[in-house]
Specification:
Helix content: 40-55%
Structural class: alpha/beta
Strand order of the largest sheet: 3-2-1-4-5-6-7
Distance between the termini: 10 Å
Number of strands: 13
Order of helices and strands: EHEHEHEHEHEHEHEHEHEHEHEHEHHH
Strand content: 15-25%
Number of helices: 15
Length: 365
């Protein structure tokens, strides 16, 4: 059986990194696979470095229907059995059309819990064999869009437990790197700077948190269009001396174990890969109980769940953990155990392998 993965993201973030993890896990099982990506993609470079077959397909964006013809030719040339579409929007639409009429099974992995246009969902449903949701939260969104529950398999994302682990020798000391006091309590948010990540609600809680914990310092890892607005909010609230915009960190796996706490105040979330990474590093979490987050953060097991858009709840939960070293340690250990038990790369690869085989047998191929 030969798998062709389609991923049109240019950067090795979130979903694209999950594709690399999956290819690594499937290769360990001896499965033949190929990656279709856009020219210059970081995923393509990383996949080549691991010895995978990679083809770059020119793609001008979501409206570029020429991807249909390019991908169709590649499906024929590679004698693909299963087309696994990882990208959303235009890429998944053009992907299912490219496979139409060929002896190719089609799987679409959905990573986000926002709604889609029902007409597109119906079309993709007719031309694909299975949807994969990375969480029960994403599955609920797909069902709301009109996908029958029986056509959806839930397979959680994975975390690289070798790369993300506790007790690493730091590549850089975060307090030194950002000029922070040596006794700082470091609270991190690892998320794009976009409205749905809920940074504003944490900012609203921060002035009162600083009264209780004057050595608290907030590190925002991530980039996005909301940065200017958040900087203005920090100045308006008088918290800007205590907030560091750290941007994208290439050393995040090494930075995470230095944090005392990770906060994720998202309003919507498919699953939350950064939460997997934090737990793998034994960092306790405060997060909103939305989307797939409760599948990653088990309340009082590896973190504390709070209602979304609730600064008071954030204040209470963060205060509880920052004032109790023993509880943070307990939840940190619980997180690492949860990741090893349910979110490893081999577990994810095994689940997809079983799904590929099930679909091929189901349709008699």
């Amino acid at each position: 059986m030969k798998i062709l993965h389609l991923e049109t993201g240019r950067h090795l973030y979130g979903g694209a990194r999950q594709v690399l993890y999956l290819m690594h896990g499937l290769a360990a099982r001896g499965i033949e696979q190929h990656l279709a990506c856009v020219p210059g993609s970081e995923l393509g470079d990383a996949a080549r470095a691991e010895g995978h077959d990679v083809t770059e397909l020119p793609y001008a964006g979501d409206l570029d229907m020429r991807l249909v013809y390019r991908l169709r030719a590649l499906l024929r040339a590679t004698a693909t059995d299963v087309l696994h579409i990882h990208s959303r929007k235009g890429a998944d639409t053009w992907g299912v059309l490219a496979a139409a009429g060929l002896d190719v099974s089609v799987i679409i992995t959905r990573r986000v819990d926002n709604r889609d246009k029902r007409v597109l969902v119906r079309m993709k449903g007719r031309l694909s064999d299975e949807f994969v949701a990375i969480s029960e939260g994403v599955k609920r969104a797909l069902v709301a869009d009109g996908v029958p529950a029986r056509r959806i398999t839930v397979i959680h994302s994975a975390v690289d437990l070798e790369r993300y682990r506790p007790h690493q020798s730091p590549v850089r000391d975060l307090r030194t790197a950002y000029g922070l006091p040596a006794d700082s309590l470091l609270v991190g948010v690892i998320a794009q700077l976009i409205p749905r990540k809920g940074h504003d609600y944490l900012f609203q809680a921060l002035p009162r948190l600083l009264k209780r914990f004057p050595n608290l310092r907030l590190l925002l890892f991530g980039q996005g269009p909301l940065r200017g607005d958040l900087e203005n909010s920090a100045r308006r609230l008088g918290i800007n001396p205590f907030v560091t915009f750290a941007g994208f960190s290439p050393t995040l796996a090494n930075d995470l174990p230095q944090l005392n706490l990770v906060v994720h105040p998202a309003l919507m979330e498919g699953l939350g890969v950064s939460l997997l990474e934090a737990s793998a590093c034994q960092v306790p979490i405060v997060a909103s109980a939305v989307g797939g987050i409760p599948e990653v953060v088990h309340d009082h097991d590896n973190g504390i769940l709070v209602p979304p858009a609730d600064p008071e709840a954030l204040l209470d939960a963060i205060s509880t953990l920052l004032s109790d070293d023993q509880l943070r340690c307990l939840l940190g250990h619980g997180g690492r155990m949860l990741m090893e038990r349910e979110f490893s790369i081999p577990q994810m690869a095994n689940a997809y392998d079983r799904l590929y085989e099930t679909i091929r047998h189901r349709i008699g191929k």
